[in-house]
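Here is the promised in-class demo. Please do not try to memorize the tokens; focus on the logic of going from shape to residues.
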């Protein structure tokens, strides 16, 4: 009997060891937010294929007053894509093969990691694959970067339970922010940068019937925006914030907390033309049918002379963590 028990225990140990041997231990991925490693042979990168990659991924980011690339790109020649280089969190691989198409892979060489592989038989085939699948490629990289940004944000969060309870949602805001103004239906949250520069968030709501789903949707949202800001952040001596009409706001469809939302990107300014203050904003009007309202979350930046892509992306990522109660 003792021999049988001993053999059974030995079998269990060997089985466990075999399972451990089959487990892949991946290194932690690395890289700056919104920085993509492009793995491609030099001859492809320096030719029309490289130009197409730059047109797709380094196109101007949406809604910024000055042109800034959507992603920063770093080319890595295919033969040296190994070791530390392969630990990049976001990777675009260009392969000239007998196969055509794009393939999205997760956690191949590191974790977390998103690799988009674009294959084609010719240079033009690769270019066609890039352009035909641009939304899919950008979406894959953007989701990975939002997840990474939120992972970093969650290391230290603002204690905002009072706001969450009053507004009926939860959100992940870094502890570097502070609640500057609070009321039952309007919250203003700020993060100070150097030299009076700031990153700001606003939260408010209005009835579902305030926005018509017609050609006037953008105008309805902007009118509500200006009205709510005038009530929530009353300016003095012409310091009222308004939407810059000369920079036509853009509207997109979005999903926040599995709910449809309008995404508006534009530029704000101070009403008094003598006060040269302005910057980009991103506004999400989330359709909350259960509570018969649009929950609005907006982020805006005041950072003259500085690049603003990463500031706006941080605000966007925070907003995308919203969960409506």
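The designed amino acids, position by position:
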């Amino acid at each position: 009997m003792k021999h049988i028990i001993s053999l059974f225990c030995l079998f269990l140990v060997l089985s466990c060891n075999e399972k451990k041997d089959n487990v892949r231990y991946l290194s932690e991925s690395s890289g700056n937010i919104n920085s993509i490693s492009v793995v491609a042979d030099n001859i492809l990168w320096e030719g029309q294929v490289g130009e197409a990659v730059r047109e797709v991924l380094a196109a101007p980011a949406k809604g910024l007053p000055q042109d800034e690339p959507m992603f920063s790109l770093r080319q890595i020649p295919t033969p040296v894509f190994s070791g530390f280089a392969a630990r990049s969190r976001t990777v675009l691989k260009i392969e000239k093969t007998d196969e055509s198409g794009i393939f999205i892979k997760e956690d191949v060489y590191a974790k977390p990691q998103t690799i988009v592989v674009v294959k084609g038989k010719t240079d033009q085939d690769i270019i066609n694959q890039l352009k035909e699948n641009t939304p899919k490629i950008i979406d894959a990289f953007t989701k990975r970067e939002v997840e990474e940004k939120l992972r970093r944000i969650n290391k230290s969060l603002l204690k905002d339970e009072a706001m969450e309870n009053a507004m009926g949602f939860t959100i992940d805001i870094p502890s570097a922010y502070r609640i500057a103004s609070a009321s039952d239906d309007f919250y203003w949250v700020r993060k100070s940068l150097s030299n009076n520069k700031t990153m700001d968030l606003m939260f408010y709501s209005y009835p579902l019937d305030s926005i018509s789903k017609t050609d006037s949707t953008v105008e309805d949202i902007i009118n509500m925006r200006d009205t709510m800001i005038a009530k929530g952040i009353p300016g003095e001596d012409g310091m009222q914030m308004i939407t810059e009409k000369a920079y036509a706001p853009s509207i997109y469809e979005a999903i926040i907390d599995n709910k449809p939302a309008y995404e508006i990107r534009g530029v704000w300014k101070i009403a008094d033309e003598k006060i040269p203050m302005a910057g980009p904003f991103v506004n999400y009007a989330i359709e909350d049918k259960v509570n018969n309202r649009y929950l609005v979350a907006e982020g805006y930046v005041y950072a003259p002379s500085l690049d603003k892509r990463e500031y706006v992306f941080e605000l966007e990522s925070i907003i995308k963590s919203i969960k409506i109660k």
